[in-house]
Specification:
Structural class of chain B: mainly alpha
Number of helices of chain B: 12
Helix content of chain A: over 70%
Helix content of chain B: over 70%
Oligomer: heterodimer
Number of domains of chain B: 1
Shape of chain B: globular
Order of helices and strands of chain B: HHHHEHEHHHHHHH
CATH topology of chain B: ABC transporter involved in vitamin B12 uptake, BtuC
CATH class of chain B: Mainly Alpha
Chain lengths: 372, 308
Amino acid sequence: MSTTLILGKRLSFKHIVPFLSGGLAFLVGGIILYAAGVDPLEAYALLIKGSLGTTRAIADTLVKTISLLISGLAVAVAFKCRLWNIGAEGQLYMGALGGLLVGIAVVGMIPVVSVIIVLIAGIAFGAMFSLVPAVLKVKLGVSEIIVTVLLNFVALLFISYLLHGPIKAPGFLPYSPDIFPESELPILIDHTRLHAGLIIAGLAAIFVHFLWKSKIGFELKSVGMNISAARYAGMNITKSILITMAISGGLAGLTGAVLLAGVQHRLIEGISPGYGFIAVIIALLGRENALGVCLVAFFFAVLLAGSESMYRTLGIPVAFAQTLQALVLVFVLIGEVFTRIHLPRRIKRVNEAKLEDHGKQIGAPAERGKGE
Amino acid sequence: MIDFIIGIVASGIRMSTPSLFAALGENIAERSGVLNLGVEGMMLIGAFAGFIGTFVTGNVIIGILFAVSGPMVMAALMAFLSVSLRTNQLVAGLAIWLLGVGLAALLYRLTFGVVTVAPTVPTIPPLDIPFLSSIPVLGPIIFHHDAMIYLAFLLIPLTHIFLFKTNIGLKIRTVGENPKQADTLGVNVNRIRYMSVIIGGAFAGLGGSYIALVTTGSFSEDIAAGQGWIALAAVIFGRWRPFWIVLGAFVYGMVNATALGLQTKGTTIPFQFLLMLPYLLPIAILAVMYKKSVAPAALATPYKRGER
């Protein structure tokens, strides 16, 4: 009897904690706003209104969700296999470059085919770029964390070079030429910016969901979680690490190609406002699974879109969203410990109290263990 | 030509200083068994705190005190997460990094709003060491710098002595190699780790403030430009020994200075490729060095009493 009750309690508490943690992050964010002389309630109301208030606002939020979702999945795939790929931002830019090179070259095909080739080029470029840290890891044992971070800077500088030179369109600004219209992702709802990348993002989520259920996904996970056990089971470690990184980098590259084909239609230096870094938080908060990443990506898109309207109306810097996202992560990390350590203790207490009551009812000595 | 080379080396030393500070501090944290990936975020907080402290009070000493304390708070949070709560250290470090990046940008924008001309503070001027600065070649390279560089020079042997010649240093290293044994010997593992991580934060703050108060005299969101990550690479390159870490940071600074020197001299190489070098070189060095370096045995492992 008591067991079922306790299990029920644990489940519900475990699910409430992340929301409590998120709430605390908003509380701290509110205090920062208050200290800066802004009414936090007004600001948060604007955040909701600016991201979900009108059809156009919702569409813009979904457009941001697309990028955050695909890049979040990219990082989640790597993290799940304990590969610390912090290079999604650079891989995203390389993917956008791949998409661009195809998008400005391929002409005269039916649009669907053309778009698919652009996206595949993005995946290929992102995957190839992510193989640099992967090869360094499997061949020389170099930790991928620092390498992936540093390669972000390399990728951005490389793109900057291309945009100031070889692929610069005529004019003053460092923009590439536009891709051909048939390579653009079509708009889903008229008079909004919501494009078919939403479908691509959904497919990517389904892909990752089923990846973890597949045999190959199981192998990739196993190598990440316990490398010696996986080796003992006869799995190919090198191959697994390379595949994981390629999938991760490929998804990051896809993010870039979708941004290119769906939003900008050309390559610019600021095509991603740090999606690859926000993706790190999304992957961690989404517990590295597809559904979790979907939910967090949408939530963070609301924050991003809302923070833009907070900026327009109240002058609150856009960095507020970034800070809030990091705060949510910090509080969730703290909260996780409560479910891990303190909750079992609480359950034990509840359990003991229950037994005690029960014991009293049947007349058994109940004082034992009370002072422990 | 000789003046050009002297100029490059001197500026290489200046450019290596931020990551040198941060790496010396991170080394202490890692020696105690805590890998703090949040160095970049702490440096940014340090840069902002140092800037705002100097901007408001007009006193650079108070600015540096600000710069040291801000990251110490961040480091305390890192220690709370990784030592007390035993969160995965990589995850906790990434959280500290991203929090620092966001918070520094947010606080800067909240204070100054959107400005067309970035507010500035006077940079710390160079301070010639009497007699020594007039030695040919060596003088302008080593003894014609600002006070913070001399502090960095001083901290190199000091951190070495601290880690290898003092009782507390021995405790730190034991905690990093074998926390269980340290615990049995009566060392408070958690307290040592807290202390080491917070010292690391203070050092990162010095590094961050160097960028804001000496290199630029202003603040911007991307001011750290990956130097916190370079510091992490320098610690690995230096195999957790202060004098070798210096070499790692110095090589980074030299590449940076050479790249900028070539740029001003005028070359046909696009400047973006020159700017890539400081990021590519640590990767190359790590690739060569990584297998040879042996990290503290308990690095990135949380310690819990009574667990095997």
